[in-house]
Amino acid sequence: MASPTGIAIGTLSEFDGETAVHLASALELPSERDLALRWNGALSTSGRIGVLNVYNEVLMEATASQQTEVAIWTNDPVEPDEIWVLLS
What we know:
Structural class: mainly beta
Helix content: under 10%
């Protein structure tokens, strides 16, 4: 699910393990992983972009332009244990 300022992504159930989340440049997507593009588009930002949990806690963040292109790659369409948030 996406809005002009955010994207919601499901993760692996907490009972099944942890999910690795990467916030990186679009050039850093590893080609050897079994990942598929799940979302691609632009987000409006305040100059920062972050990965937050369901409690609205910032897990990681980076500087971003006012309109930032974002691509979300995961290794599973429903409960991924690997998520790449790529900025360009």
